[in-house]
Amino acid sequence: MKTILFAAAFTLACAPAMADSCKVDAGAKHLAGAAQTSFMKKCEKDAKATCDSQAMDKKLSGAAKTSFTKKCVKDAVGS
Question: What is the pTM of this model?
Answer without folding.
Answer: 0.68
